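One-letter codes give the sequence; the fold follows as tokens. Both lines appear below.
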Amino acid sequence: MKIAIVGAGRVGSSLGARWNAEGHDVIYGVRDPSEPRYAELGGTATPADAVLDADVVLVALPWDAVEEVLSGIDLSDAVVIDATNALAANSRELVGNPDLSGAQLIAQWGRSRRVIKAFNSTGAGNMANPTYSGGTPVMLFAGDDATAKSVVSSLATEIGFDAVDAGTLAAARDLEHLAMIWIRLAYSLGQGPDIALALLRR
């Protein structure tokens, strides 16, 4: 698949490297593709060019940049993965409408019905390496399009996560709160980023 990753921070570059290793065609959409810091990523383009003909578009931007960037690109019929969290500048609280998730806003801004919330509730280190001796980290996802969910489930599974459907896009706000729990445990409460949540089954 052709995967366009809009944003080249830790989350975007970690997932891009993993999917590239799995044989996907990965391109990064960045503001200035000529910047030397992007050279090691491989393929780069402006966001508008990166998403052309993409099967999957991963949105991995700081929250305050999302609306502006999405307003300038055409997502067409791509599966859109929202890996963002609507975080305040201090990265310790969610902002915006408490009844409307960031994923629902992205669906509006991007004019897409195929938005799936995923890859937002754990750290980039776990995306680079999700291996733990005690079990398989869960990757919960939420959305309204069944086919898009299947694509996201496969992308999560092939890089080592236990992919679990958490419901419709309305459930995305729950996943954003789950992200806040992970952030609190990892940083505010001193557990560190080498922690992951798992779904146990009997």
Remarks:
- The mean pLDDT is 93.
- The first helix runs from residue 10 to 21.
- Helices lie at 10-21, 47-50, 63-70, 102-109, 124-128, 146-157, 172-188.
